[in-house]
Write a structure and sequence with these properties.
The chain is α+β, with helices and mostly antiparallel strands. It is built from ten helices and 21 strands.
């Protein structure tokens, strides 16, 4: 979860799902003020910057009822919070020496907040592995806002908290989620069935799902086993397609490129000089990592149930949350009408966002998109790959400014300046997910076109694909 080296006074690791990754296209992610080692953002978030394994990272913090500062996970508030304190001498945040163990958090704690008590229950005892303290015959659980009296219902075999709202008593069920080491409070009206087993979908009703349904669209299907047969087959083919493309791109680099392709690669990446052997090796490693990660979403993989289909409220979107501990890939219903080849591109793009947890890879953001391929036949797909490739070269050489996604003129002007300079252009392109996704397809283009032709008979509908949206 977190590792601190007391000899060097450095953080060696913190689990990736605690980090927040600011969107560089949003002005809201620029702090409005900094005080006492904390960054304050306009939308209410407080955060701290830590150097973890030599890399600067941002973590959200909260102040609990005991006035302790704790690192919390935005996506997984049920995960244990990490107590920290600011060392004035070293001007850095370090683990709090006053707390010798971590206790689980409670997701949707607001449902029981009215019952929080600030006084510790009796003798200060160390909680068990699930964070429960038993004093006499009474069980207690500590949250961000205080202590809660837990009640055990034997017939249902569940814990809960009795709350009073407008004079009426209500039972709020709380369940321990072992996959995230924390608790979830459930709305009295909630009757979500609990799945179990090594390959069950995980994440039902959590904060990320709530945010998705509020902002993006209603969840239609959770997990591969819930998908209709034809849709399940198409997604299986697209994941396999994407995995083979990433592996093929790595193989192309390993086998060696022609002189012309070496120049094109250099130009697509915005570099003034040919790629060094070390940089080529980095790309190979990245593409192999993408293939290995996508393999986990195959029918035999550990993440096979972590595909979620939503009905978009507007537009057509597919997306991930880079700090989602459950590593779900959300696919918009409208994207399912795309060809297998274009759906494979979406999986390549989205999986790039997950690899930030590995320090050797660049963070993947969405500065701009290249769009989808026209793949009515092999010739059309070949032309489409060439056209997107030429656009990528023009952007990489500073001859064309893409349709940037940011809505803020200040950030847009900064990014245009960055893309216009040969000294800064490559840095932005290295971090743009769609640049890397389309690069894999271009490197494996001959096999990509062949796979597309082979899959054409299986696609329910084909036609001229239009630009799609990722996040």
């Amino acid at each position: 979860m977190a590792s601190w080296n007391p000899s060097t006074h450095t953080w060696e690791s913190i689990a990736f799902y605690y980090e927040v990754i600011p969107d560089p296209s949003l002005l809201e992610w620029r702090p409005v003020r900094q005080a006492n080692g904390k960054l304050h953002f306009s939308f209410g978030l407080e955060g701290i910057r830590l150097s973890v394994n030599g890399l600067q990272r941002l973590y959200p913090v909260v102040t609990n009822f005991r006035n302790e500062t704790l690192i919390a996970s935005m996506n997984h508030p049920e995960s244990p919070m990490i107590p920290v304190c600011f060392n004035q001498t070293r001007q850095q945040w370090e683990p709090s020496l006053l707390v010798h163990y971590l206790t689980p958090g409670i997701a949707d704690e607001d449902l029981i907040r009215s019952e929080a008590q600030s006084t510790a229950p009796g003798v200060r005892l160390k909680p068990n592995a699930q964070g429960i303290v038993v004093v006499g015959a009474q069980a207690y659980l500590m949250g961000e806002y205080g202590w809660y009296r837990l009640i055990w219902r034997a017939p249902e075999r569940e814990w809960g908290v009795s709350t009073r709202t407008a004079g009426a008593e209500q039972w709020v069920r709380v369940t321990y989620q072992s996959e995230v080491d924390g608790w979830q409070a459930h709305s009295p009206s909630s009757s979500q069935p609990l799945q179990s087993g090594p390959l069950a979908y995980v994440g039902t009703g959590d904060r990320l799902e709530s945010e998705v349904q509020d902002a993006m669209g209603m969840i239609l299907y959770r997990g591969r086993e819930r998908l209709p047969g034809s849709l399940r087959d198409k997604i299986d083919r697209a994941i396999e397609f994407a995995m083979q493309t990433a592996s093929g791109a790595a193989q192309s680099l390993r086998a060696g490129l022609s002189v012309q392709d070496q120049l094109t690669l250099q130009q697509r990446l915005g570099m003034d000089a040919p790629l060094t052997p070390a940089r080529l090796q980095e790309l190979q490693t990245l593409f192999k990592a993408i293939a290995a990660d996508l393999a986990r979403y195959r029918p035999s993989g550990s993440h096979v149930q972590q595909i979620v289909i939503i009905a978009e409220k507007s537009g057509d979107v597919s997306f991930v949350s880079a700090t989602d501990r459950h590593r779900r890939i959300f696919i918009g219903q409208k994207h399912l009408s795309l060809s297998t080849a274009n759906l494979a591109h979406i999986f390549l793009h989205e999986d790039l966002h997950f690899l930030h947890e590995n320090a050797q890879f660049h963070r993947a953001f969405d500065y701009f998109y290249h769009g989808s391929y026209v793949d009515t036949d092999a010739r059309a797909l070949s032309r489409s790959i060439d056209n997107i490739g030429q656009t990528a070269v023009n952007i990489g050489r500073g001859r064309q400014i893409p349709n940037l996604l940011t809505q803020h003129s200040q950030i847009r002007n900064e990014q245009i300046t960055q893309l216009g300079s040969s000294t800064t252009r490559a840095e932005l392109l290295a971090h743009n997910a769609d640049t890397q996704a389309h690069l894999m397809i271009w490197l494996d283009r001959l096999k990509f076109i062949q796979r597309s032709s082979n899959s054409s008979g299986s696609d329910a509908s084909r036609g001229n694909a239009t630009a799609n949206t990722h996040r």
